[in-house]
Specification:
It is a single chain. This protein is mostly helical and about 300 residues long. The chain has one domain: Rhodopsin 7-helix transmembrane proteins (Rhopdopsin 7-helix transmembrane proteins). It is built from ten helices and three strands. Helix 1 packs parallel to helix 9 and helix 5 runs antiparallel to helix 7.
Length: about 300
């Protein structure tokens, strides 16, 4: 039976109803987005041009920054531009595309963070075999697997969603397209679809998070036998990653590890992980990593010297 959609265009309620609050949000979030692009772009450029940053950890970090740029660009430009207009509309096809790419890139980030935890485990617990285990071909396979895992996950989500009939209403109580708000607009019962989406997103997040926690428990146990200086250096390399994991999984847990429903807090929590977190990641890794800071300083000095000649 063919799916009949009478709805071709959807309307967002937006983050705030008050016009003044929307203008203030525009002034705040536009610089945040620009900083996200520049910060993550700088990390990608630095890692790929600095000979000192050729370890697997920085290879994964550059891909994480690439994911952040793509993920943020899937949602934030539309969100920012909508803050200046009264009618915040998006086509149904555009909505499906936003859902597909946001879930694709979101899961790719989860898997990349998991890979980075494994990398830290090998580096700290098996240092003599690190370069053998984490060879460049293995790193490429792990990154490819992260992107592929995100793609498969998102295909499952979007195949479920595109089969739903939408015949009105056409107002989404959000500032971007996501599965839970969109399911409320379907003119059919979406209980089964909600359970499938919950299982698909929830199980993946839970397994990844348990793997991350287990990795760092093993690392902490292993560090008990290290010298104070060895512990300090090892924990320093892990601290940035742990911080990013907590910033990412905290909001994601609130939004996706529960049955389909919409809380008023959802939009504010979503702002944190769609707008703020992609900006914080490069700042966290740069401020807490001496090698990245030194590499950036060398590149800047080289640029200044070449410019002065």
């Amino acid at each position: 039976m063919a799916i009949k959609n009478n709805v071709t265009q959807l309307i967002f309620t937006g983050l705030f109803q008050d016009q003044e609050a929307q203008r203030v949000s525009f002034v705040i979030f536009l610089p945040v987005y620009v900083t996200t692009m520049l910060g993550n772009g700088l990390i990608i450029f630095t890692v790929n041009t600095s000979k000192s940053l050729n370890s697997p950890m920085y290879f994964f970090l550059s891909h994480l920054s690439l994911v952040e740029i793509c993920y943020s660009s899937t949602i934030v430009p539309k969100f920012i531009s909508d803050l200046l207009v009264e009618n915040k509309t998006i086509s149904l096809d555009g909505c499906m595309a936003q859902i597909f790419f946001s879930h694709f890139l979101g899961v790719a980030e989860i898997l990349l963070l998991t890979v980075m935890a494994y990398d830290r485990y090998v580096a700290i617990c098996k240092p003599l075999h690190y370069m053998t285990i984490m060879s460049r071909p293995v790193c490429h396979v792990l990154v490819f697997g992260s992107w592929l895992g995100g793609l498969i996950h998102s295909l499952v989500q979007i195949i479920i969603t595109v089969q739903l009939p939408f015949c009105g209403p056409h107002v989404i109580d959000h500032y971007f397209c996501d599965l839970h708000p969109l399911f409320k607009l379907a003119c059919t019962d979406t209980f089964v679809e909600g359970i499938i989406v919950f299982a698909n997103s929830g199980l993946l997040s839970i397994i990844s998070f348990l793997f991350l926690i287990s990795s760092y428990i093993v690392i902490l146990v292993h560090l008990r036998n290290q010298t104070a200086e060895g512990r300090r250096k090892a924990l320093s390399t892990c601290a940035s990653h742990i911080t990013v994991v907590l910033l990412f999984f905290g909001p994601a847990t609130f939004l996706y590890l529960r049955p389909s429903s919409t809380f008023t807090e959802d939009k504010l929590v979503a702002v944190f992980y769609t707008v703020i977190t992609p900006m914080l990641n490069p700042i966290i890794y740069t401020l807490r990593n001496a090698e990245v800071k030194n590499a950036m300083k060398r590149l800047w000095s080289k640029k200044m010297n070449s410019g002065g000649e």
